Description:
0% of the residues lie in helices and 68% in strands. It contains no helices and six strands. Strands 1, 2, 3, 4, 5 and 6 form a six-stranded mixed sheet that branches. The protein starts with a strand and ends with a strand.
Amino acid sequence: xxxxxxxxxxxxxxxxxxxxxxxxxxxxxxxxxxxxxxxxxxxxxxxxxxxxxxxxxxxxxxxxxxxxxxx
Length: 71
């Protein structure tokens, strides 16, 4: 997993239409519905250190899950 401290930077080739952040227990801790974009920065200062999953919804309807560590 990729470590992050203050911000999570997401860059993709497809447009992002939704982002959910889940903690290690699978609880949703954030839900963002940005305007379709290929680059997104999420502030993490309010999150406790630990393992998280970013569940990204793309404009074509596909969903990808990516693990990261908040330090």
